[in-house]
TrEMBL record:
Record-linked InterPro entries: Cation-dep_OMT, SAM-dependent_MTases_sf, SAM_O-MeTrfase
Species per Swiss-Prot/TrEMBL record: Solanum lycopersicum (Tomato)
Pathway(s) the chain acts in: Aromatic compound metabolism; phenylpropanoid biosynthesis
Protein name, UniProt field: caffeoyl-CoA O-methyltransferase
Pfam family, one: Methyltransf_3
Listed GO biological process terms: lignin biosynthetic process; methylation
The keyword Ribosomal protein appears for this protein: no
Alphabetical keyword list: Lignin biosynthesis, Methyltransferase, S-adenosyl-L-methionine, Transferase
Annotated GO MF terms: caffeoyl-CoA O-methyltransferase activity; S-adenosylmethionine-dependent methyltransferase activity
EC numbers for this chain: 2.1.1.104
Keyword Transmembrane helix: no
UniProt similarity note: Belongs to the class I-like SAM-binding methyltransferase superfamily. Cation-dependent O-methyltransferase family.
Amino acid sequence: MATAPEAGQLIALLLKLTNPKKTIEIGCANIMQIIAIDLDREAYEMELPIIQKANIEHKINFIQSSTLSALDELLNENDNRGIFDFAFIDADRVRYQKYHERMLDLVKVGVSMPEECVKETMKPNRQHIIEFNKFLASDTHVQISQVPI
């Protein structure tokens, strides 16, 4: 399976905007410092020629394991809590909720830019958007949806 081109473009844009240094991927392959987890090594090896051509093999730590076991192992090492800037899950949809629960402890949670980095002129508008998003999340008139892009 491969990610749809429009999803790949959106992810590439998000990565450029957020400039993550460390990411975790369920299913293979991506771009920066990566821990890639997949039970099927062939999925990784299928991408390996592209990875090698892009000269980024040194940035990828492939873990051949069941995802839940690998995530639990990462969580058992407390140094891994909150260290990932980005997570991409594209495998085994039956277990997405279990992956999500573990990712909450592995990925930094919060806004993409720390408050101290926001220009003073942008802070009022930013706060309005944050408040609006909180309002939408609690508004029973609105159905929030995860879009598969």
